[in-house]
Specification:
With 148 residues, this protein is an alpha/beta fold. The chain has four helices and six strands. It has a six-stranded mixed β-sheet with strand order 1-6-5-4-2-3. Helix 3 runs parallel beside helix 4. The radius of gyration is 15 Å and the shape is globular. The protein starts with a helix and ends in an 11-residue tail after the last helix. The N terminus and C terminus are likely disordered.
Length: 148
């Protein structure tokens, strides 16, 4: 699973810039992410690289907290699940999946995906991860509503 994060950085290495990461964001019809202001981690990444996993969690936490969300040890209105999927077609080209679910109903509220390539150096991997998370959470939440 260590290859997973390396895949996030491949685009940066291939094009020479971190801006090449492909990121997708979706708001699911099942919920409105803006209404929910607390979150808990249901599933943290397990890439086999503890440092990378911490960077992903810390990066997501920072972006959510900057938007006014509060992390709870458990029982948040949203639950976060993160998975890293190894690339099947391109070696070392992995995908980072971030899913937010309504904790009570278990319905999807938001989904973010980052596809990237394999950076060989730690600084390139770190920059690619940061750029991917920035892109992924730039428009989060997808819809506007009053917080409750």
């Amino acid at each position: 699973m260590n290859v997973v994060f390396i895949a996030l950085c491949a685009a940066a290495v291939m094009t020479g810039s971190v801006a090449s990461a492909s990121v997708a964001k979706e708001a699911e019809a099942a919920g409105d992410a803006e209404v929910v202001r607390t979150y808990s981690w249901a599933e943290t990444p397990d890439s086999g690289n503890a440092q990378l996993d911490r960077r992903i969690v810390t990066g997501i936490d920072a972006r959510l907290e900057a938007k006014g969300w509060k992390r709870r040890a458990s029982g948040g209105r949203l639950s976060i699940a993160v998975d890293i999927v190894p690339g099947a077609q391109v070696p070392q080209a992995d995908t980072l999946l971030v899913d937010l679910f309504d904790t009570a109903s278990h319905q999807a509220v938001w989904h973010g995906t980052a596809h990237d390539g394999a950076a060989r150096s730690a600084p390139l991997r770190n920059r690619a991860l940061e750029a991917s998370l920035d892109q992924m959470f730039a428009a989060f939440p997808m819809r506007q509503a009053a917080a409750r």
